[in-house]
Amino acid sequence: MKKFKNLLIVALFFATATVLGQTKITGKVVDQSNQPLPGASVVVKGTTNGTSTDFDGKFTLSAVNNAGSVVVSFIGYKTKVVTFSSSNANLGNIQLKVDENSLDEIVVVGKGVIDLAGGRKTPIAVSTVKAAEIQKKIGTQDVTMTLVNTPSIYVSGQAGGFGDSRISVRGFDQTNTAFLLNGQPINGMEDGKMYWSNWSGVNDIASAVQIQRGLGASKLAISSVGGSMNFVTKTTNKKQGGSFYAGTANDGYLKSTIMYNTGMNDSGWGTSIMLSHWQGDGYNNGTRAQGQTYFISFGYKPNDNHNFNFLITGAPQWHDQNFTKSISTYLDKGLKYNDNFGFYNGQYLTERRNFYHKPVLNLNWDYTISDNSSLSTVLYASFGRGGGTGNRGNRVRTADGLIDYDAIYANNAATGGDGNFDNDAYITRASMNLHSWYGVVSNFEQKINDNLTFNVGADLRTYYGTHFRQVENFHGLTSWTEDRTLKDDNDNRTGPSVSVTATESGKANPWAATFNMMAENQRIDYDNSERISYAGLFTQLEYSTDVMSAFFQGAVSNQSHQRFDRYDYLPEFEDSEKLNNIGYNLKIGAGFNLTESSSVYMNTGYYSRQPYHDNIFNNYDNSINPFSQNEKIFGLEFGYNYKSEFLSGSVNLYSTSWRDKVDGFTDVTNAGVVTNTQTLGQHQYHKGIEFDFIAQLAYNFKLKGFASFGDWKYLGELTTQTLDEDRNLISQSVESVDGINVGDAAQTSYGLGIDYTIFNGFSVDSDFRYYDRLYANVSPTRGELKLPSYGLLDFGASYRLDLGTDKTKWLDFRVNVNNVLDREYISELTSANQTTVGSDTYRGIDTSNRGYFGWGRTWNASVRYNF
């Protein structure tokens, strides 16, 4: 009995010592505005001993040791390590900073097919812009402008009109960057191009935009050269609420948006709806525009294993366009001059209007099969309807260069109403582009063990496009007649001569184009279609530990093409030969964690990419381009990343070789003559270095910056074919282009930005960026022409007014001023005429060169009510 008492005393002693030795840690986890973060994780470092914060962000945790550190984390925020001791166990407010590149908190569905940087542990060169930043700074600009303050990004073409911008990544144009919407490829199937006017609604529906420069993380069978851009849309919101937005800007711009979320009910259903309308006169003369955006999302989560989300979205719009002009014309008539419009009886009319409506349907299904395996699938469809208008026949201009519609109507009346090319008549035609696109992307992921993960998936698409011209406006005529001679199977015009007389017109309106299609006997100039089908398989294997990670990706695909020409060929020869091309890509990489804050990586890849449809049928008929072949791309990347509580940054080096590239350029002379230049067998070599950083210098002051220095050259020889506007071959030549600089994007760029919170709710921000070594966008056979360098300064201010104490309702006020200093600059040139003795110049550039000046000072202001 005495022995038992002694043992009990000893046990009680050790138990008491253990309890007395524990340290009770307390604190509160908050965000940058000192709002509590409920559900944040607090874990004693090196153990599994942890807890979560309560509704007020507070926590209590007992630690065995008298001193140590806790790891505090929350989805969407940077992890923070805080030390404690028995004498300092009340940690007070622990403030977490937003993780600029984190997307975990917004990607609700499609995680397996939306290839974001966080989906793979091996690092890549990446920049992320979230919804709050997009809504704050975008104003009237295209969504491409959200990325201008990132390395190796150049945006041009805004002067063409709403939605006409173009984005280049590491010197490669957007036909060579993969664009995806919730895992759905959205580059044009025919030419790889992006028409941002079709995606004007992305500003409203995006949760985030992530640009992966270079090889990227994408597992899809897409051989992107410059990089991959992922648009992650809003999905069905789990919380009830909504918002109303109203904005205005320079040049008569107005926009209003309303969004409402029902929240998720007890049965797992929820709905989100967004509607938007915008309109404006445009920065340049004659660039009026109007559009809407709609977004409807249905979410259903029947249990923890299945998550469904169906959305339909579209952005019907029309916008009048401005084309490049000579520098001398701009200097004479003003930098906003545009000669694509005029007046009839005092009423505005335009010759160049783009109009389009592209509804997109997207069904995502995430299936958690087990703790170690999952399946993600996206089914999608899109239906594009619309086109662009232009002149056909005898155009007449006024003395100041505008289109003289009064004279055109008078000329048309003199014909008696029946117009053709021989009697000086004129119509506005519309070049129509219609398509139906269906696809599925599916990815299966298996976690083999704690270190090894395997992915395999499929990417299937089929596309049918139709192209023709129709009359948009007869301008007083009752009909328009055209003659043509049909072709045989050898593309010889040996068939009979036939005529088509159009008596019907279709208006340049996106809603009208959606539901009406011109009959075949009313189509003029051309009428053809194509079927493009794509089948790809991809796989990924990744190994990771606390110290290192490594991955392998591979993909193989078959792409088939066939063209159907109803206008130029005898009926028995309408169908072209069907062509199949096999392509593949391989990528490997590894990353190493040098410390808790820093890591290095290396990625390399080889692509054999099939040519685009328009490069196979590059003569606009059924003949196959003998030069078309797979393009060969080899990429190599090295990088260093640093990430701490107050500073994060990266350094990336890249080298990309691109052989057997086929490209095209379109030029318009001062006399209005259009030529199409096809360049075959290009070899480009791009190398460079990139820097970017974000520094939290104080709790209310953030500094960010970027810099990129590229060296992009053409190598070897190039075959050039020049065709006229009617697609007739004018000339063909072979020339050396070795050492010519690649144009259309600044090879040197850098910038700085600040965000400063003056007091709670009120903040200001400013960004400066500078561009140098920007060359004209021309065929390398025309040499090179360096544009003047320039810098731009933007400024913005935000104020948030909380309504009530529950922090669920507030008003956001925002003002932006872009190009604050009203800098005059040339954003792009489409010719490379060298300065000669006696020629007129502008900042060292011959004024005969054609291009665009960038926008001057612009502004926008908005208010958003969240409830």
Number of strands: 51
Helix content: under 10%
Q: Please outline the major beta sheet.
A: 26 strands, antiparallel
Give the helix tally: 7
Shape: globular
The helix/strand class is mainly beta
Beta-strand content bin: over 45%
Give the N-to-C terminal Cα separation: 71 Å
Mean pLDDT: 88
The gyration radius over C-alpha positions equals 30 Å
Poorly predicted ranges (pLDDT <50, ≥5 residues)?
Answer: 8-20, 103-108
Q: Would you give an account of this structure?
A:
A hairpin with a 4-residue loop joins β41 and β42. About 0% of the residues have low confidence. The protein has about 850 residues and is mainly β. It is built from seven helices and 51 strands. The longest helix has 20 residues. The strands form nine sheets. It has a 26-stranded antiparallel beta sheet that branches.
Structure at a glance:
This protein is mainly beta and 867 residues long.
Topology:
Layout: H1 2-21, E1 23-30, E2 41-44, E3 50-52, E4 58-63, E5 67-73, E6 80-85, E7 90-95, E8 125-130, H2 131-137, E9 153-156, E10 166-169, E11 177-181, E12 184-185, H3 202-205, E13 206-213, E14 227-233, E15 241-249, E16 253-261, E17 269-280, E18 289-303, E19 306-314, E20 317-320, E21 325-326, H4 327-333, E22 341-344, E23 347-350, E24 353-357, E25 360-368, E26 373-393, E27 403-404, H5 405-414, E28 418-419, E29 426-447, E30 452-473, E31 479-485, E32 497-502, H6 510-515, E33 524-544, E34 548-565, E35 579-593, E36 598-609, H7 613-616, E37 631-643, E38 647-668, E39 674-698, E40 701-714, E41 717-724, E42 729-736, E43 748-759, E44 762-772, E45 790-802, E46 810-818, E47 826-829, E48 841-842, E49 845-846, E50 850-853, E51 858-866
Parallel strand pairs: 1-7, 11-14, 22-27, 28-31
Antiparallel strand pairs: 1-4, 2-3, 2-5, 5-6, 8-13, 9-10, 11-12, 13-14, 15-16, 15-51, 16-17, 17-18, 18-19, 18-20, 19-25, 20-24, 21-50, 22-23, 24-26, 25-26, 26-29, 29-30, 30-33, 31-32, 33-34, 34-35, 35-36, 36-37, 37-38, 38-39, 39-40, 39-41, 40-43, 41-42, 43-44, 44-45, 45-46, 46-51, 47-50, 48-49
